[in-house]
Amino acid sequence: MSAELLVNVTPMETRVALVENGVLQEISIERNRRKGLVGNIYKGRVSRVLPGMEAAFVDIGLERAAFLHASDIETPQDESDDDSRPHIGELVYVGKELLVQVIKDPIGTKGARLTTRLSIPSRFLVLIPNSDNIGVSTRIDNEDNRPRLKEMIERLADEMSSPHGYIIRTAAEGISEEALRGDMQFLNKLWECIQDRVSKTPSASDIYSDLPLIQRTLRDMVDEDIERIRIDSRETVQKMTSFAQSYIPGLASRIEHYPGERPIFDIYSVEDEIEKALQRKVQLKSGGYLIFDQTEAMTTIDVNTGGFVGHRNLEETIFKTNLEAAQAIARQLRLRNLGGIIIIDFIDMEQDSHKEQVLSALEKALEKDHAKSHICEVSALGLVEMTRKRTRESLEHILCEPCPMCEGRGHIKSAETICYEVFREIMREARQFDARELLVLAGQSVVDLLVDEESTSLAQLQEFISIPIRIQVETMYTQEQFDVVPL
Fold this sequence. Notes:
By secondary structure, the protein is an alpha+beta fold.
């Protein structure tokens, strides 16, 4: 598999696209005015305790207070079952200062989500302050490497008298002891700097910010599968090369400047793919299609055969459509950065073997995804329920806003419905006010209907209330807006 990163840099935003075999798989966007907060550490102050929710709101200096659940507060009972855990009132109180880390960006109307279990990642290790646990990434599946790496980190921690725990990242597989020692020294020094800042910084202030998008991508995403990193800014290339030489030496040779006049995202039609990822409907090559509906509570995906009729029988047609849909869904989840609860309505299959193969295809397609996911069996209603870890906003939330006309409903009242609302309002105004004349202000489509198809009804109403009715177009009004003004 050939993969490369395309980086588009402007003064306002940075965009990073992961392209595999010429097809866009992931897109990350960071805007200077609204940077992500995940991984940032703050010195917060508890502003409100909610015993009924086993949670607290913490002021960390943002527009909205952040949310801290009792289960995200580190306690000596962390290893025990939930029933023996202390209640939120025993853990925090209003005014208490806490060192907290953002684990989920503010999404929609919800504030950021916090934890007191801090972790600081580097290239090969993740530092867990004041812990004695040594963990190994589950993605390192070589049974010989896991104990070797764990033993190496334990030895290095003893050598440096480090009081912290560490998680060994996937990138550490096959790395030398010297490289791991350098990583550990860097993390230990960084933690000392953070502690020093805590003592000198007031409440509701940031203590540590994670790396900007490009450096974060190089640290977390780039592995041996990435053949090259192409950046369209010469200044950024110099910064990234310097960063790579200091922290990821083997990567520096793969960073190159893209000097072409044609925009870098046009090379693999990235802009077109982003545009498609914002649409509800995703066309499948077979003729079938998917429908994505994203709400605050969950995302639903509906699979349809569409124009695909197959060549053998109905069951085979359904099976092939579902198999293709499983591949497309896995890609769209990464591309759209959808998370939380996801419900997939595959086309009903009769044979259990077909259901198992479709589920297996979905699981296999999600193996490349950096976000953790969990897939349940096909439910009694024929639905597949799954979760995907969501830490940052989806592509739609970053690039779009609710339609001002329908306010996110996805539909608006018809012109006919608004006409009848206008008639009812005219009756209300005529009874309330001793008006010489009534002026109706409405959008063009409503006025057209009033003076054409509903002209007879309007004339009858005018005769009934014995008050002249004048109609006026307001070009700035939406179809649902209108006013009836007594004169």
